[in-house]
Amino acid sequence: MREPTFWILTSLASAPRHGYALIQDAERLSSGRVRLQAGTLYAALDRLVAEGLVAPDREEIVRGRARRYYRLTDDGAAALDAEAARLQASVDAATAQLSARRHFGLGPAGTGLVAS
């Protein structure tokens, strides 16, 4: 799963959102690492709707413009859950390897033993 998709699904996990709110929430949740452009977001939403991971929720008219809200589907929640588990397994593997490295007294850069 691509990172923008992960953050879109993550944003929708708690509540339906409209496009601009998704852009803001993805940036906030990713600590600024993901800054979705409108074109990228709407192309991703179209793809996610076609895949059944996201569905249109409702439309509102705000200042004369239609604002469409999207929601996470059950399949989308399952996909996000699977991706979160995959990422957690990767973190666990890296953490275990770093722990083993410290156990053998290796420094963070792999340049040899840590000075005592």
The fold-level CATH name is Arc Repressor Mutant, subunit A
Instruction: State the domain count.
Output: 1
Highest CATH level, the class:
Mainly Alpha
Class from secondary-structure proportions: alpha+beta
The average pLDDT is: 90
Radius of gyration: 20 Å
Binned strand content? 15-25%
Topology of helices and strands:
Layout: H1 3-12, E1 17-18, H2 19-29, H3 38-50, E2 54-62, E3 65-72, H4 74-103
Antiparallel strand pairs: 1-3, 2-3
Structure description:
- The chain has a single domain (3-91), classed as Arc Repressor Mutant, subunit A.
- The protein is an alpha+beta fold.
- A three-stranded antiparallel beta sheet has the order 1-3-2.
- The model has no long low-confidence stretch (mean pLDDT 90).
- The chain has four helices and three strands.
- The protein is elongated and about 65 Å long.
- The protein has helices at residues 3-12, 19-29, 38-50, 74-103, and strands at residues 17-18, 54-62, 65-72.
Short overview:
Helix content is 55%, strand content 16%. It is of the alpha+beta class and 116 residues long.
Question: What characteristics describe this protein?
Answer:
116 residues; alpha+beta; Arc Repressor Mutant, subunit A; 55% helix
